């Protein structure tokens, strides 16, 4: 039977999955030991031949996930500490912010979102809302959105230099979701100028028609922007209550910042 392109793709995918499974197995063995482990022991415990184990460990060493020591011994690399610190920081921000965003939600009766930046996107870390089952998919916890399409993301872009903002625009192409989306660099720069002037960022139906948002920054003890909190609402209600919601949101974000050690 001849291999078709589809068969070859399926074989390649299965082979890739098998490599990840074997790498995970070796990492698990290293994680279970307090001291470095020899190649022969790792191959024996994982039931892999020595050459396969050596090849996988070499690839993991090249990206810092495994440290190769003299004599053919291996242990987990320091890259895991970097990843662990990032995860811990994100969990800390969510835990600290949770009571404050719940309080703001109870105060204004609208959904309140907490997000962080991850590359050219934001990730929604948490959300306080009365009916989570009716939350739009776009705003579910764990979902992502481009920086320029959200009030949350604009806060992070406003921290960058003109060159960095232009680089973001070039990398992403500034895709739009609605007729109001900022798909030109000049429009984005104008919006970011407003962020600098007002200390908050707006999404005026740029991510979704009929929905407006406003976001305020959360800073750590070094003054770094580490997260953002937003209020989202249908356009008609937002316009009616904006004058009250914006100060309440800024106060909430400031409270979270102080809880993280910021001096405001």
Automatic annotation (TrEMBL):
| Assigned keywords, A-Z | DNA-binding, Transcription, Transcription regulation
Q: Is Transcription regulation among this UniProt entry's keywords? A: yes
Matching entries from PROSITE patterns are given as:
HTH_ICLR, ICLR_ED
Which first-to-last residue range defines the signal peptide? none
Q: Which Gene3D superfamilies match?
A: 3.30.450.40, Winged helix-like DNA-binding domain superfamily/Winged helix DNA-binding domain
Query: What is a GO molecular function of this protein?
Result: DNA-binding transcription factor activity
For biological process, the GO terms are:
negative regulation of DNA-templated transcription
What is the species of this protein? Answer: Fluviibacter phosphoraccumulans
Question: Which protein are we looking at?
Answer: IclR family transcriptional regulator
| PANTHER family per record | HELIX-TURN-HELIX TRANSCRIPTIONAL REGULATOR, ICLR FAMILY, HTH-TYPE TRANSCRIPTIONAL REGULATOR RV1719
